[in-house]
Each structure stands twice: as C-alpha cells, then as structure tokens.
Amino acid sequence: MMNHDCLILLASADVSGQYSSLKLDQADKQRLQQYPRLAQRIDWQSSRFLKQQLSASYSRFSLTHKKGHAGLIACSSVQHIPGIDMEYAQERDFLALAQLCYSDNEQQWLAQQPDLSTAFYQLWTLKEAFIKISHGQLTDMRRWCLIPTGYDGIHIPALNSPVQAYSCVIDEHWHISVVYPASCSVLAQNCTYGFGHWHNYAFNWHQWPVSPSV
C-alpha cells in the first residue's frame, strides 16, 4: 500500500476502536494537551487512526472527517499539500445555500441539474478540496468558480502547478472529493484504501476535466 506517490485512505466510524493514543505525532500530542476533550471524539479517533497508517515518507497530507468517518490524502515528493473533503448528504435548501457560497454561473448550473443533492455536494466537496491545495480559506468558496462562463459542466482550475481532481459517492450518502498534483503518477482508483466497513468497498472515482483557461 505504501509504494504509491499518492495515497487516499477512507475510514468508516468503526475504526475508532483501533486508534492508539500512544502513536500520536508530536503535533497531535500538543493539541490534546491544549484540548483534552478531543480524545473522546470519534472524529478525532478515526482521523488519527488514518494518520497512523502512514509511513514517514508521506510528509504532505490533508484530513477530513464527518460523523465519525474520516478521509486522508497524502503525497510524497511534492511541494503542495493535497486537498480532500467529505460530506454526508442530507436534505437542505440547496439553492438558498448556493447563494451564499457559489458563483452566479454555479448557481445557474445547479438549478438545471436533475439530481440537485448530488450536484450540490460534488461542487461543495471539490471546492473545499481545491481550497486546501491552494492554501485558501472557506471564505474563498465564491472566488473559485468551477462552472466558468461558456462551460456547461465542472472544470477544475489548473493553478500554476497542474492538478488532478476526482469525486466518488459511497453508500449513496457520502460524497468525497480529492485534488492533488498532476505530478503524482497514480490515479485515484489505484491508490485508494478503505478501513472498517469500507475495507472491501469498490471506490468508483470520477475524474474531472482541468481547464487552463479557468
């Protein structure tokens, strides 16, 4: 598992019982000293369990967690921290939320989609993952438009260093997106590993087109 230049690790909440406080790195030990209640959170346990699966060669990584589930993407031999986001689909007023965080083009595209929930979460998770790799903040949600003028679908901005981007849906409810440097040679479907109930899951990643003009 550790021979790829990129790894995507995904865990269901039941891995929390395999978490070891003795294997925490120095940064996480310091966080626990400052916020000791973190140790009781399932999100903390499952996400740190994933960190504990990495060898020292994976110095660049990004974490995400939701409802006790967790995701991690890690790269070796690259300068940029990759991005990952995970969301659990639930009924919302998607068009109202889109007014707060999506560009005008994205809102128009979203309103035309037959599956509003899937389209909303695809955009949301891709934007969050993209913000992480571009060292941005959540306030940049509207800044990065993934449905640019003249396009009828999602296109990923190329940045100064080319990237590749993927999304997948797990168990119909979990939406996950990753963005990582194109210099990593491995495709998402070839470097994804599941833990817990997702151990034998067949992750079906969709690769998004990248547009230098975005």
Mind sketching the topology for me?
Layout (H helix, E strand, L loop, with lengths): L5 E6 L14 H9 L7 H10 L8 E7 L2 E7 L7 E6 L5 H8 L2 H8 L4 H18 L22 E2 L5 E8 L3 E8 L10 E4 L10 E3 L1 E2 L3
Parallel strand pairs: 1-8, 5-10
Antiparallel strand pairs: 1-3, 2-3, 4-7, 6-7, 6-9
Description:
The chain is of the alpha+beta class and 214 residues long. It has five helices and ten strands. It has a four-stranded mixed beta sheet, covered by helices on one side. A hairpin with a 3-residue loop joins strand 6 (163-170) and strand 7. The longest helix is centred in the middle third of the chain and has 18 residues, at 116-133. The chain is globular, with a radius of gyration of 17 Å. 38% of the residues are buried. The model has no long low-confidence stretch (mean pLDDT 91).
Q: What key phrases describe this protein's structure?
A:
214 residues, 25% helix, single chain
Would you summarize the structure shown here?
The chain is an alpha+beta fold and 214 residues long. The chain is built from 5 helices and 10 strands, in the order E-H-H-E-E-E-H-H-H-E-E-E-E-E-E.
